[in-house]
Amino acid sequence: MNKKIAFTIASMLICGSLASCTVETYNGTSSRSAQQFNIEVTPYTEAQQQATEAPKAQEAATTAAAPENKAPEQKAPELTAPQTTQAPAPQESSVPAEYVTAAKSIMVNLNDLDMIDGGAVSTGGDVIDDGMYRYSNVTDPRFGSLSDVQTYVESKVCGDLLYKYSEIYSGDVPMFKEFDGGLCYLQGGRGCGYNFKGEPSISNITGGSFTFSVPVDYFGDTQTFVIDAVNDGGLWKACSLTRQ
Hints:
By secondary structure, this protein is of the alpha+beta class. The chain is about 35% helix and about 25% strand.
């Protein structure tokens, strides 16, 4: 009887132990092997998961916020059309009218002298041969003597141009020459005169002098005369002429 009671009690103790194992195996969070080797397994709670993920999230945010170490961006230079400066509108001439009038008068005088030098003189009557050239009596009312011719030329030009046109009344073969008191003119036609093709352009005004340029026809082409003028004793005269 006592043996049966002892066996029953032992059986109850064994079953109780087995029941405890079953409950621990299915309700606990650690395996049996871990308890067998005295390894403590801490349950992985939600708080621990958040604590683990927080540093990673912070690191990712820091990495995203940190500026990238890139080369500075360079933009291609903008291409713009070249700027042009508009030419100012032409202004009305501020040249005093007296200089324009003087320039036009000088143009007439130069053409007149060149015509005389080239043969544009009225002649008639006897023909005189001086041994080399033939002269005719002058009938032009402007000239009665060689002195008249010289005075006429000197009233139109001065300086270098006076030297040029002095061949009209002096030199080895002058255009005018006196024979026995009579004024004669060298026969023969020579190209002469200036065909001006525009208005004079005045510059370098200094009171008693100025310069002007004017286009002129030259055997079908156009040249430009640059003429220096001076006031000589109250008369405007050309003193030099340059062809361009």
